[in-house]
What does this fold into?
Amino acid sequence: MKVLNRVTLIIFACMASLYFIACKKTNDTTQFVSYKNYTAPGLGKYIIYKLDSTITASFGAYFVVHSYLIKDSIVEVIKDNLDRETFKIFRYQYDSVHHVWNASNTFYLTPTANTLEYVENNLRYISLVSPVVELNQWQGNSYISTSLYNQNNFFPTWTYTYKNVGQPFSIGGLNFANTVTVEEYDSLDNRPFSATNYSAYSKAYEVYAQNVGLIYKDILSWEYNSFTSISGCKLVKPKTGGGFDTTLIDCDANRPLCDSFKALPNYKIINCDTSINQFVYDGYGIRQTVVSHN
It folds into this structure.
């Protein structure tokens, strides 16, 4: 009888453990969210964007923004060189004078099991990955071997990060209930901006909406450099017999001499006037804002 009771207890304990495990699995609300929730490629699919292109004006004096209306349309389903299903995208630019859409570029979109690859100008990006979860990271530019950005030599090492997963987003007069933001890069170089020193900044963000795809893109990369002249400097140096002499010195014409004086004991260069006699900007930016889609 004691042996039977012991066996009964063991069986009861095992059943209780299995019940606990089953309940734990049933009550676990964590869900695997595929990147495919935030894209909807298909033949005939299109998205119309307002495109703002930022370029450097002549001689680098300032930046100029040109705005266009573009339409990205999936026109064909093909196989890439790895025999993977790929969507060919034609980009059309709207001619507001003749009221027609003119083809301007071709892109490719390849959805794999866990990644979305996007090819633009022969450069392959990993735009989205699974799972879509807050702060999930990946090397989105790992297929790219050279920098696109003039001051950023580490473009291929950018770490993409998911942020604001499942959050609403409003843009271009449209409201999207479920979106995810991909922070591709945001530099902290030379903040705040300085008019007298070298400054640079780069950022890249994309926002994808559930069952729609890319609804917003903001890429900006620029650098600023200035050339200064120094005038009105005074050299303070020890006087023979005690005290100090103060004389004018042209540090702009002979900076090595001024630097050598500053290195001497009790020598100082004071009261210099620094003025900018030339400055130059270089960089570019792209901002895509969804207007409509099917």
Remarks:
- The chain has a mean pLDDT of 84.
- Residues 35-226+280-293 form one domain.
- The longest strand covers residues 273-293.
- The two ends are 74 Å apart (CA to CA).
